[in-house]
Amino acid sequence: MQDPNAAKNLCPRLLDYVCVVGSHSPSQSLGATNPDMLRRYPLEDHKDFFLPQDVVFFCQPEGCISIPRKRMTSLRESNSFVFTLTEKDSGLMRYGICVNFYRPFERRACAADRSPCDGAGTAEGTLAPSPHTRRKLKQKNNTLTSLCIVSHHPFFSTFRECLFILRRIIDACNKTCVKKMKALGKSVRDPVWSVLAGHPQAIECPPGFVKTFMRDIETWILRLLSTPVPVPGKTRVDVDVLPNDVQPPLVFALPDRTRLTLIDFPLHLPLELLGVDTCLKVLTCIILEHKIVLQSRDYNALSMSVMAFVSMIYPLEYMFPVIPLLPTCMNGAEQILLAPTPYVIGVPASFFLYKRNFRMPPDVWVIDLDSNRITVPLSADELPELPEPEGSLLKNHLKQALASMSMNPQPIKNLDSISAEAVAWARQETQPPHLAGFNPFIYGNDVDSVDVATRVAMVRFFNSPNLLANFSEHTRTLRLYPRPVVAFQANAFLKSRPKRTPFLACLAKTQSVEFFAEWSLAPTNVTFQRVHTGVFDPLLIGDKPKWYSTQLNPVYFQVFDERTALVSALKESTLGDENAEEDSGSEDDSNESSSSSYSSLSDFVTDMMNTDMNGETPGKTPPHTSGLVSKPGQQAWAAGLGSMLGQQAC
Q: pLDDT tens digits, residue range 252-269?
């Protein structure tokens, strides 16, 4: 993964885009349709980064799904995950942080087609629909909706919090508008969501208070897009997204080059999902540059496992395509798996069931995260074992790191507010005697400390005598400018190792080692060198802001405006939302076959295949806007955008 701290990669924008994805007209029949871009902010593309039109497929990888209320217990009611968009030419990676949830809508038949639907005849004077038919016409369904942030910066957890807050704001405004509409004698279920979704009737003549809320919501989003970027190792940005008595400020900070690069997700996740032994086998495949496909029903576990595997090989860098989540519903997505180069790609569990005519290449390793199973390709050679004793030491260190999370003492909770001396004293006082010397580079049993210990274990593994120790002694610099050219003397390197193993012979031929020879001349991150000298403490090399934010200069930025109508809406809003109570069983549709849950993944894929979803990249359809913040001329999409999926394939 790219180093977000490198000066040439530091984007001056904290957020690039905020998107709302779903369906303009949710399917009246259950199933999946092509997702639509309901809204995007800003409306104009940045000159250095056009928003790809097929980003909607990454937000909803299995299509925009419509399901009945009672089936929601069997599907993901609300989840978040990460995807990446990579430029073909520069290799720059942008991150998409997405929150998916189902919002209700009513299946109402219009006057023109009510008669054919209820089957009571088409002539005037026919009998009114039966109660069962009326209930069927008004059955409450749910349509998948996505809130997404696209950014150059990997603040996954903080951006996810921003999206949850945005949804909370929209829901609060929506509930306030529903109350006001009822007071006017009008029955509209979701006036604010209807405007956001671009429903024609909602956009034509929304009431004045709906316009006011929409203007305030869009102003909040645009102010969030204006948030400044923290300077790595120099400043932190404290952002007030809500009143301080409701939500403390969100902190954005980046470590300097002497600390590990920011990884804002649980790096140890693959170790927990697959176990240490299976995880090391997958890591071996990635280090030796085999083709890897991971699959799971859980988008979040899938995307983060892909990124974790690639990040764990630091200080080496994976030089080939990495796609944490490849959408099932995108037309032609399976063609990427035919690429002749190595890759690491994550796919939903429905991917190969949906692409029934696709034949997997014979050299691809498939790892199923749900069943903890590895499918070895038919044409694969035997995977070499890790060198010993380094392999056994690495395995023990990783197992110890995982085991430490279940041990006492508990993590220091107020780590970000006390001094370094006090932290060192607290660690010394709380370390039980029988654990002395248990593992010299584990300095805590919280998740973040375990992730640091995992990365330290990998750095120490690569710097061991039977791997890359004294690596620079076997490189020769041929040219420094305009770009360094370094020759790696592989034969001399292999002869210098105490044990020449098949793993090392394969490792010396990889592009990651060749690039490491060039990169190590002027590394953009020097943490691995500090680890080589025995610095393991997260307080000194940790990537999370809690370890260094007190040393940074604060920059305060306010997104929430106390003068807007959002204040009253949030005060009126309660956690036990009225829509949940309303949906808890006010209608009895138990006779509908659609209320039963999917019995298997194959049933879900069958429903997908029976819909009109084609997975074609959306055309030039401008997103609907309320016309309150943006000018009409800003609604046009930029012409000539290439498919980001095609860029990743190249």
A: 999 999 999 999 999 999
